[in-house]
Amino acid sequence: MLPPRAYIFISLNGVRILSIVALLLVFASNISTLVKDIKAVNAFMEAGKAVATGTASNATLEELMDFDYITGSTVPNQPAGAFWAVLNRLFILGQTIVLILSEIGWPSQFFSTYFPVLGKEFGLGALGLIQMLIGAAILSHRVDTFTLVAAFFLFSIGCLNVLLGLIFREGAKSKRSVTSWREHAKSALPTHVGPLDVRPMVNAGSQFMSSSQKGTPFSSPFVSSPATFVTHMHTGSTLMSHGSHPSEDGKIPEKGGFGFGRQGEKAAAMKGFLISKPIESLPKYAPN
Question: In this predicted structure, what is the pLDDT of residue 170?
Fold first, then answer.
């Protein structure tokens, strides 16, 4: 059974994959539409040249000029219509590239500095709005089936991203980030180091119960033989201040523990007991 955080992580990354797919489809469909528009404009210009040279009648040119759009294209039949139509397609292509890089998260520093709304500090609401605007701009013209489906798909994903942005707010991107998932996993206390069970409460309770059933509740290794790096703790028993039992002749044996200082930390690290500081307690300039 996965924790709720895992389901949120999988769901948000699933939406991110769909978002990238929708942007790629829009990118490909706009290139196809751009090529068709250029071919249609060239054919329209060729028809005008044919009329000028007398190889075609004026009725043909007048028939072409009666249409609001150049035949077989999304280019409006008006002054500089071809320029603005091509520029609009180029803008859409550039926006899709930027959004794909934003979804991938590279380069994150660039987006955090120059496009903060697409950076990791903001949620998915702004991303969804831009996707909806791109979809609406494409759907406002008569396009072919492939471009129509891609634009509808992108608009739907944009609505979903806006909804997720309202639910998770600025924490949406951090919840779906792979690096933040790894940092959260590193900060969790280990349960096993090799074959050794290092869960303190569960380990103590299980050993105490097993020893109690045998009639010797205080003869377990957990009680009589504490770890070497915690033998300086005062337990209320006959342990000396340095954590060792006095011998029969009154002599104190050699020191066996390292306490809670630097030496104790090194000894614990050598045995696999690692404690990582929470990210929130570190200064901003500290390396991750």
Answer: 85
* High-pLDDT (> 90) share of the chain, %: 32
Residue from 154, 42, 178, 169 nearest 104 by CA: 178
pTM: 0.61
**Neighbour-count burial of 174, counting CB atoms closer than 10 A to its CB (0-12 exposed, 13-18 middle, 19+ buried):** middle
Structure token pair of residue 220: 């377990």
- Distance CA(200)–CA(208), nearest Å, equals 12
Peptide bond connecting 107 to the previous residue in cis, omega within 30 degrees of 0: yes
User: Could you report the per-residue pLDDT of 62-113, keeping only the tens digit for each?
Assistant: 666 777 888 888 898 888 899 999 999 999 999 999 999 999 988 888 888 8
| pLDDT > 70? residue 226 | no
Give a three-class secondary structure readout of 239-285: CCCCCCCCCCCCCCCCCCCCCCCHHHHHHHHHCCCCCCCCHHHCCCC
Type of residue numbered 61: L
Cα separation of 213 and 282, whole Å? Answer: 46
CA-CA distance, 49 to 51, in Å (whole number)? 5
H/E element, 229:
none
Answer yes or no: are the C-beta atoms of 158 and 128 closer than 8 Å.
Answer: yes
Strand-pairing partners, residue 193, are 196
How far apart CA 226 and CA 232 sit, in angstroms, is 10
**Pairing outcome for strands 192-193 and 196-197:** antiparallel
Question: How many Å apart are CA 40 and CA 34, to the nearest integer?
Answer: 10
Q: Check whether 250 has a pLDDT greater than 70.
A: no
How many other CB atoms are there within 10 angstroms of residue 152's CB atom? 14
